[in-house]
Amino acid sequence: MRKEFLSLNKIEGPLIILSKVEDVAYGEIIDITVDGKHHRKGKVVKIDNDKIVAQIFEGTTGLSTHNTSIRFTGTPLEIPLSKDILGRTFNGVGNPIDSDFPIYSNKRYNINGRPINPVSRQYPRDYINTGISAIDSLMTLIRGQKLPIFSGNGLPHNELAVQIVKQAKISGAEDGNFAIVFGAMGVRHDDADYFIRSFKESGVLERVVMYLNLADDPIIERISTPRCALTAAEYLAFECGMHILVILTDMTSYCEALRELSAAREEVPSRKGYPGYMYSDLATIYERAGMLKGTEGSITLLPILTMPNDDITHPIPDLTGYITEGQIVLSRELYQSNIYPPISVLPSLSRLMKDGIGEDYTREDHGDLANQIFSSYSRVQDIRSLAQIIGEEDLSEIDKKYMEFGKRFEDEFLSQSMDENRPIEDTLNLGWKLLSLLPKEELDRINPKLIEKFYMK
User: Fold this and answer.
1) ATP synthase A/B type C-terminal domain: from which residue to which, for each copy (predicted)?
2) SS3 category, 269
3) Which of 30, 70, 243, 269 has the fewest Cβ atoms within 10 Å of its own Cβ atom?
4) Whole-model pTM above 0.85?
């Protein structure tokens, strides 16, 4: 028999503390009644012998230690799921916010998910075509991969996320078998409106499931948002056999909420005040992406995070890089040069790219072409540094050709409009066009047979 507690021991910010509690589980949901009529929900976030600490989803405003009753539900946070979630918008705990029409389902799913047995994982292969040249050719997104975007405050990561949602498609997959789960954490109201408006105008909203946590929403809801999104993705992928692309923005807001919650619980801080368990906490999110043997569907994860002070060594991008399979880095310098998307090619990579490109997937020359572009653009950076010292007039003729290649690469290859969807064939042909600015003998990363076939004289 479940007990109802008629008073609290203490209220500290968004937390309540209750003692003399038995048979309570970590993460259990509690029902809170205020003044006998107002209802809220909370979640157990700490257990210390017979004392528990719970975080209130709606905040503790209006609560006192004597006007509040608590009832433990005995279950974790669960959300109902069916294919009716496609085209719908929910808050961070899975409640619909686009209308009063709820999701009816016989099953409810624990948002914490279940660990995937590594032996059951299937190796990612097929590529996802985003229509963005820099990503498709140089850091190809592979179905089942987790590939984060490292951005900075003020950079167009929201616009990039919207463009990927509008354009992304899996090679060979049917349109009705591909959907996108979009989770936004700590976003401003105007950003949330921008996402919804953009998806409606482009006509992709019916295949997008949105979980929105706004900047003024409770932080415990922010902790739950990516887990609700991934739970919906797991249902659509592994029970409905769909291919799901999950986009989470902004993981920095998630980690800030994790730090705030940790400080409220008086835990010992680690680097820059973040909890010592942040690595394992992020892993419980990122590792839910992938493919399972014997199942048709897949989950591809594209988390977006803003690096504080553009510092790629900050704990959030640093720990993310250890868990994920590469990164796409946005450059403030390119953005200030009016280049969109401002993807910094050299620090970006996709560790699974080599297994999802080539003759059977994109085109036979893709791998060698990408290697040569990386090599040539790297040399461009060295020559630009030299030109700042001796001046461009004193550069050798071959160095001047590299300078021209670098400028046209940024202006023609990296740069494209927000509604431009480039096919992979056009992207690869454009790469050859730019490499043809250089003499054949400089293309030392490409098979000579491919040079004879694709080099544009």
Assistant:
1) 355-455
2) strand
3) 269
4) yes
